[in-house]
Specification:
- The protein is an alpha/beta fold and 288 residues long.
- The chain has helices at residues 2-9, 21-35, 97-100, 110-120, 138-145, 164-170, 186-193, 198-212, 226-240, 270-282; strands spanning 63-69, 79-84, 126-130, 154-158, 176-180, 214-220, 245-249, 286-287.
- It has a single domain, classed as TIM Barrel.
- Helix 2 (21-35) runs antiparallel to helix 5, helix 4 crosses helix 5 (138-145) and helix 9 (226-240) packs parallel to helix 10 (270-282).
- It is globular and about 50 Å long.
Amino acid sequence: MLEVYYSILDGKEKSRYIKNKELFNSLIDEVEKIYENCQLCEHLCKINRYKKAGKCRVIETSIASNFFHYGEERMLIPSYTIFFSGCNFKCVYCQNWDISQRHVGFYIEPEKMAEMIDDAYAKAKNVNWVGGEPTPNLLYILRVLNKCSKNIPQIWNSNMYCSEKTMNILKYFIDVYLTDFKYGNNECAEKLSRVKNYWEIVTRNHKIAYRQGEIIIRHLILPNHVECCSKPVMDWISENVPHALVNIMDQYYPTYKANEYEEINRRITVEEYQEIIEYAKKLNINAL
């Protein structure tokens, strides 16, 4: 499976994003209609996003930063990474809370952003849409890509709380899903990220992503969440998306509002990390 990732991301294969004006105009029309009764993510706010922000707190797209990123997974770098302001999660330990939980940055016209992506083509292996969260900004992304002239792999760097409507649109232009699989149950997700029905939604979307493109799953180990979250996530990956690459991450640190929750108000231990690494090995997880 690694050969597939490297062939796409090292430029030996082109992106599924192909300059198709008719297709992109059709997708833009579809998302413009969804914005009037927004159902891009599974909060299903059903509000007019042209007039009011939903739980994502996003009305007009705001770019917090954009640059060549060298801190991503090795097969992705250098990645031309575009960070959006705003998110449909409210993670109490968010390490990007300064952009995800606030409106920061500024709007860049789609034509200008397309020029920046085209200019990055010679150096970047991909365009990496992240945040915050890219889902509330799907219309902006489509408008940008409709103006691009280069064929470059597209990365959807997401918490995967998208609606099925959104997943059905992503299949036309996303090459690699770089996912954030946080929790092994609904209770932890609701307590720490303020989202409902997490497990059913995120597992569904991982299955869809697995069919639609390549997938790299990130799992951040949380202190005291080895049994309730990390192990169930590894079990599910092994059984349902066995060829996915998995980045088991140990860099959790208590930030934002984490000090209000005793269970996560510390870094993970070496023992917690090693336990999950060994557990993943026993399941034949393709760990990075």
